[in-house]
Design brief:
Elements (H helix, E strand, L loop, with lengths): L8 H8 L3 H23 L2 H17 L8 H22 L3 H6 L8 H22 L3 H12 L4 H8 L3 H19 L3 H7 L4
Helix pairs in contact: 1-2, 2-3, 2-4, 2-6, 3-4, 6-9, 7-9, 8-9
Length: 193
């Protein structure tokens, strides 16, 4: 597998020719953010995953020659996910119930843009978390993503409570440095951080 900058013109050529490595790179770049975006609309993580998978499959099957750059592909992916999410809600008659929970003004383009930005921030957060050393990453995810208590983590991993606290501090320190200004938003997505 070659490594090529997703923003480069060569990447677009590989993608247009239907090379799986290029498609895989595109998938890995946008999958998490699109799933988060979809889940915010349909309020069902499993269904959000299915919707995103369907959008990527449709994209793979279509003629990709009409996309001049990755930015247009990203816009297409987000718009496709948004439309499929809304169709899903309508088809299952859940739309009315979910729309009642949102103010009518929230359903405009600003709402969806805001959700897309949030999804991008979450994707960046998860990318940074994935860079943590394995044990540190596992403890961070169990604590902040899954919401497990420190004692339970210590018992399940057969390590001391102090080790849990130390690893959490190391993770926070790394993420603070790695994410810079984005770190302030991490608390919105990971309570207690």
């Amino acid at each position: 597998m070659y490594s090529i900058d997703i923003q480069s013109p060569e990447f677009m050529k590989y993608l247009e020719r239907g090379e799986r490595e290029a498609f895989q790179q595109l998938f890995e770049t946008y999958h998490k953010a699109l799933c988060f975006f979809a889940a915010r609309i349909v309020r069902d993580h499993s269904e959000a995953e299915d919707i995103v998978q369907d959008v990527f499959l449709s994209f793979w099957k279509m003629d990709r020659g009409g996309f001049p750059n990755v930015k247009t592909i990203k816009t297409f992916l987000y718009n496709s996910v948004q439309h499929r999410c809304l169709n899903y809600l309508r088809d299952l008659e859940i739309r009315d119930r979910n729309y009642k929970n949102l103010n009518k003004e929230d359903l405009d383009e600003d709402y969806f843009l805001c959700q897309q930005i949030r999804a991008d921030v979450v994707a960046e957060l998860f990318d940074a978390i994935d860079e943590l050393p394995d044990r540190c990453k596992e403890i961070f995810k169990r604590s902040y993503v899954d919401g497990q208590e420190e004692r339970k983590i210590a018992e399940e991993l057969n390590i001391s409570l102090n080790t849990i606290k130390t690893q959490k501090q190391r993770a926070k320190s790394y993420l603070r440095g790695r994410l810079g200004d984005l770190f302030v938003y991490a608390g919105m997505f990971f309570p207690g951080l």
